Amino acid sequence: MPRARPELPTLKKVAAAAGVSASTVSRVYSHPQLLRPETVTRVRAVADELGYVPHHPARALKTGRIGAIAVVVPDIANPFFPPVIRAAEDRAHDRDIYTLLADTDEMTEKEVTLLVQLQRRTDGVVLVSSRLSTEAIRNRSTLHPLVLVNRDVEGVSRVLVDTAAGMREAVDHLADLAHRHVVYLAGPSSSWSDGQRRAAVLDRAQRRGVRVTVLGPHRPEHDEGMRAAAAVLETGATAVIAFDDVLAQGVLAGCAAAGVRIPQEMSLIGCDDILAVRTAPPLTTVRGPSRQAGALAVDFLLRLIDGVREETVERLPAPLVVRETTGPAPA
């Protein structure tokens, strides 16, 4: 005879074991912020011990919510995005909300398709470094709760990492080291962050009397940076500011292959501080608080899902961190 399936613990059994009402158990998994932290901790511990799993479809029928959000990124292989994703998942998990992950592979058509699909499967979306047009983003935000990370669209709640300020610091740092010709190694042409970083470099360089050669666009990949190293060396510049650490790491490898010493013959600066301490020598870079951005974005999104429709904007500082890939301009 087939073995009978074990009876799954119910919400009422958890309530009885924890000594609370069934409605309290329900709130632990739907609105824990309404309860005392010690109550939430005790009920979750009892539920975990019993093997209780909240029934999301039942909750959706009762509340009209699915109990899921999505995080959409342009390239999961880029080291900047995993900390954002992890922080978003952790914050959502605290509210007993599960997280779906989607990768657009830098393709706007795929991004649109995913957002349409996720509208039916989630309560809202955290959209990171979107490559869509401003009009497309505004349109999607009217159809489904949406929060942006690193995309500045008026009328849509967003978390912005202010790497432009760090890029201005980077130019000042190089100018103070007597560099007079700098390469800006650009990222994707559809990247809002690249536009902000490039504009900051060009503006501050003009003020400091530094010549800038812009090379790109480039997909933020190690091999792209490595291939770009030859073009960088041909410019005669004495320093490079890369769109991100991944491109900078590629340039570092390309310069090493060409026998160019960093920082003695070429100074190098990255952005995001995602690989900097792992390079040899350690990379000077602009530090972006990616985990904080992911957590805040989920906070903003959950407020939208709860019916708070006001626009929320947070700008996070991203300072320059000087390490060992920058030095005085060669004579």
UniProtKB/TrEMBL annotation:
The lineage of its organism: Bacteria, Bacillati, Actinomycetota, Actinomycetes, Micrococcales. It holds the Pfam family Peripla_BP_3. One of its GO terms (molecular function) is DNA binding. InterPro entries: HTH_LacI, LacI/GalR-like_sensor, Lambda_DNA-bd_dom_sf, Peripla_BP_I. This is LacI family DNA-binding transcriptional regulator. Coiled coil: none annotated. SMART domains: HTH_LACI. Residues 9-63 form the HTH lacI-type domain. The keyword Lyase does not apply.
